[in-house]
Amino acid sequence: MNRIRALLSSSFARFLLVGLFNTLVGLSASFALFNLLRLNYWISTFAGNTIGAIVSFTLNRTFTFRSNVSIGSSWWKFAVVILSCYGLSYSISWLLALAVESIMPNVRTDWLHNGAILVGNGLYTIGNFLGHKYFTFRTNATNNRWAS
Length: 148
Description:
The chain is mainly α. It has helices spanning 2-8, 11-36, 41-64, 71-103, 109-136, 140-143.
């Protein structure tokens, strides 16, 4: 029990727990939109990440970072981080998929795009943690780089 309590005292561990749930919601939506509804890559990933972002804002503000920063001053920062991370992460993963496709033209396109969704999600997660910790939900405690 003490190990669980110690693990949850770290903001990164809490972020990962929230991220697991948030990722299951958002990634499931992205894959469903792409594979079941046959929407394109950009619509599928943007809609899936938007759904996940709604869950993420609430849980990260209250549970992960235990922030007392007002909703009014944090929602727009949250949106800036989310949109920046989305654009960068999924563009990089899209370009990687195109590069792999040019090297290995026999790989199925849908496999490449599904792989790009996974890689983009990983980049997106790392960028979001850093952006939300040091920009969106920053408090005096997180100004110290050694703070958990």
